[in-house]
């Protein structure tokens, strides 16, 4: 097994809630019928019982079509007021020119059907690709420049707490531009919280409630599938940017939440690691993962699977010996946005497959 990727041939029908729930319901029905026996390793008996994985490029739950709007939802109601993550009230009077500071927030804006108002995005905004790549880029979310943002003449600057540095945010506030920053906790409640915050800021709270409910249902269905994994694999997440940045993620991280919800055990957290720590042979020896979980860009930065396994210690782990490596798109896996339910489903499928060969 070189590296697990979602099957792009199965993209069909994950965009709308009724289609997603139908897929999950059918999968659960098959699982209930098939799970009377287990494999010798203690995992679920057959990987064919789970649905085909979706694609990171599949459309998320979206309310973009005006035909789907309930009466009174189509037009933004402004002015709108939100309370930001620091408890400050922010009043928005115009959304004609939105600059989005983070990829997850950009994706939410588009999923709410408000992408036409976005005039600038940061470099982490990769979804939807056909729209975001055409917009002015303001730099990376943690290293933003007030000058570049203000040059776009925004009527609203919106992001999450990862945006910075603080001096840049202070300059935007000082310029008199409404700046709405939401919390981004490492929790499966984060997608719904951020969706509701963005929708409130844009004057479309009802639309936000509908999208949040859809995403919540997708996450719940994915978690139900994950409960069918009876032999959870130990998973080591690696954040890689070439040889310069090589880290593992423990507790209090978004990926820890995703691993646990998908039916795995975070090997770094199990070894006592909290948040991010440098990857080292000692960490690898303590973790002894069954699966290595990486981001697409990270895997590419170290030269693919072969390059990954040249990192000291990794080739000698159960995951390295079996080449059990899962690679997913950065924003798809870690964004905690509209596609989190889909990402969780893909992760569950991959863990389910890995559980067939993991430790008994």
TrEMBL record:
Residues the record lists as binding Mg(2+): 104, 160, 184
Name recorded for this polypeptide: Periplasmic binding protein
Statement: the UniProt record of this protein carries the keyword Lipid biosynthesis: no
Sites where the protein binds Zn(2+) 4: 346
Binding residues for heme b 2: 239
Residues reported in the UniProt entry to bind Zn(2+) 1: 96
Residues that bind Zn(2+) 2: 104, 160, 184
């Amino acid at each position: 097994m070189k590296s697990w990727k979602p099957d792009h041939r199965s993209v069909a029908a994950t965009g709308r809630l009724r289609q997603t729930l139908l897929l999950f319901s059918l999968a659960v029905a098959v699982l209930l019928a098939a799970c009377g026996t287990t494999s010798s390793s203690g995992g679920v008996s057959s990987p064919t019982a789970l649905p085909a994985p979706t694609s990171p490029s599949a459309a998320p739950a979206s309310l973009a079509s005006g035909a789907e709007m309930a009466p009174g939802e189509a037009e933004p109601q402004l002015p709108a007021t939100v309370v930001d993550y620091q408890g400050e009230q922010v009043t928005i009077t115009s959304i004609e020119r939105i600059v989005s500071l983070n990829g997850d927030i950009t994706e939410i804006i588009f999923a709410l059907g408000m992408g036409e108002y976005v005039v600038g995005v940061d470099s982490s905004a990769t979804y939807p690709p056909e729209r975001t790549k055409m917009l002015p880029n303001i730099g990376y979310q943690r290293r933003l420049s007030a000058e570049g943002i203000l040059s776009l003449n925004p009527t609203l600057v919106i992001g999450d707490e990862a945006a910075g540095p603080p001096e840049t945010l202070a300059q935007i506030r000082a310029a008199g531009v409404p700046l709405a920053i939401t919390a981004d906790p490492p929790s499966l409640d984060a997608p719904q919280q951020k969706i509701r915050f963005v929708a409130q800021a844009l004057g479309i709270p009802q639309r936000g409630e509908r999208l949040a409910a859809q995403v919540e249902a997708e996450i719940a269905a994915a978690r139900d599938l994950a409960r069918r994994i009876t032999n959870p694999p130990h998973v080591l997440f690696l954040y890689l940017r070439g040889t310069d940045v090589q880290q593992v993620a423990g507790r209090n991280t978004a990926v820890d939440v995703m691993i646990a919800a998908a039916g795995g055990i975070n090997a770094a957290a199990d070894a006592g690691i909290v948040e991010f720590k440098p990857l080292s042979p000692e960490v690898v020896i303590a973790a002894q993962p069954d699966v290595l979980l990486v981001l697409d860009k990270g895997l590419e930065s170290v030269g693919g699977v072969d390059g990954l396994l040249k990192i000291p210690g990794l080739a000698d782990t159960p995951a390295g010996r079996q080449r059990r490596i899962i690679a997913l798109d950065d924003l798809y896996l870690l964004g905690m946005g509209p596609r989190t339910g889909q990402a969780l489903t893909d992760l569950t499928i991959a863990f389910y497959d890995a559980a067939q060969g993991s430790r008994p």
